[in-house]
């Protein structure tokens, strides 16, 4: 993993936790790839679908974690109410666009 840079959006701990979660998802996806390669029966493909759904849900939770942490950090670092409101508006737009 490459070096983490300073951020006003996420703390070092928040980044570390998010990266850990993403690494677990990456492992899940490698497992799904292996399941697909080895699948031979309809039941095998049921297992693939179940694991894909689990990985998708884990990625969705990571997205929520990203937005929540960013909201908390940017609100805490805001120097004015207007800056906090602008940050919240940008995050709300991101949620609307990607969720």
Brief overview, please?
With 99 residues, the protein is an all-alpha fold. It has helices at 12-38, 42-77, 81-98. Helix 1 runs antiparallel to helix 2 (42-77).
| Percent in helix | over 70%
Number of strands: 0
Task: Sketch the topology as an H/E string, one letter per element.
Answer: HHH
Report the major sheet: none
Number of helices: 3
The helix-and-strand class reads mainly alpha
**Parts with pLDDT < 50 across at least 5 consecutive residues:** none
Radius of gyration: 18 Å
Strand content: under 5%
Rounded mean pLDDT is 91
Question: What global shape is seen?
Answer: elongated
What gap, in angstroms, lies between the N and C termini? 27 Å
Folded structure, characterized:
This protein has 99 residues and is mainly alpha-helical. Helices cover 82% and strands 0% of the residues. The chain has three helices and no strands. It holds the Pfam family Trns_repr_metal. Belongs to the FrmR/RcnR family.
Topology:
Blueprint: H1 12-38, H2 42-77, H3 81-98
Helix pairs in contact: 1-2, 2-3
Task: Please tag this protein with its features.
about 80% helix; Metal_Tscrpt_repr; 3 helices; Metal-sensing transcriptional repressor; Metal_Tscrpt_repr_sf; about 100 residues; single chain; mainly alpha
